[in-house]
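Q: Study each token:
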Amino acid sequence: MTTQDTRPEAEAAGLMFPTGFVWGAATSAYQIEGGLSADGRGTSIWDSFCRQEGRIVGGDHAETAIDHYNRYRDDVKLMADLGLTAYRFSVSWPRIQPDGSGAYNAKGLDFYKRLVDELLSYGIDPWLTLYHWDLPQALEDAGGWPARDTSKRFADFAATVHAELADRVRNWSTVNEPWCSAFLGYASGEHAPGRREPAAALRAAHHLNLAHGLAVQAMRAQNAGSQIGGCVNLYPVTPAT
């Protein structure tokens, strides 16, 4: 056993977490909320996907999940007990805009206002993700992500949520793992909406990136102080030579 301070060596080897690294936990709305028909929430592509026979092992669905929609105060208390300083969560697009466009559903948005307030009361920094795969079914029926108009609808949605929460939420993510939405959703069909159309998947990839750009523009126009980015799939790649 040695008492030698190895921090400089560890830092040189890139094995230390940098100063200011944020420790927290992350979820997505569809994974945890439940309450799929509560307070005016609309239908998402994952609701429809889960209802299709053979799509989900055991026929499982998210009607209840861990009931975060009703138990969020208990869940935030657990986060505080764990010592988390940050919590990344997503908002459910069909909970805010049941049909993916138009006026927002006040009851749905109020849930996220209450959640943010609860997090802040415990000193937990909210990191908000705008899209974690739960596209409103109405937009999928109109073409989904392969349709360019979906990008514009997303920018409107992003601006709506940002306008209501930017005074309390500083860190924003637009689209979670767009590669999954595009290629697992529209090429392999493993994820919702379960389509197997390679050409449509390429259009979806483009429009998901376009959605990010349009949303960033709309949000920065409202509040230049917001920190905005995206969440992408990262893989280590080693060259052959």
Observations:
- The chain has a mean pLDDT of 94.
